[in-house]
């Protein structure tokens, strides 16, 4: 899969603090809680959030033909 997503939001936090949450696997732990209709589980298969990390994204039941997908971090550009 290839693509991008962009959204601007002003924050009182420093860039380092924002990327601490947004740029790592911690976000994967938050998404199922924030968007349970989109993802039901995010698991780290390999890695620590850096290049080479593999995630297994499990989708909620009821999406025909789509149970899960694996995603590999091949480049990280903060």
From TrEMBL:
<dbReference type="InterPro" id="IPR050279">
    <property type="entry name" value="Plant_def-hormone_signal"/>
</dbReference>
<protein>
    <recommendedName>
        <fullName>Bet v I/Major latex protein domain-containing protein</fullName>
    </recommendedName>
</protein>
<dbReference type="GO" id="GO:0005634">
    <property type="term" value="C:nucleus"/>
</dbReference>
<dbReference type="InterPro" id="IPR023393">
    <property type="entry name" value="START-like_dom_sf"/>
</dbReference>
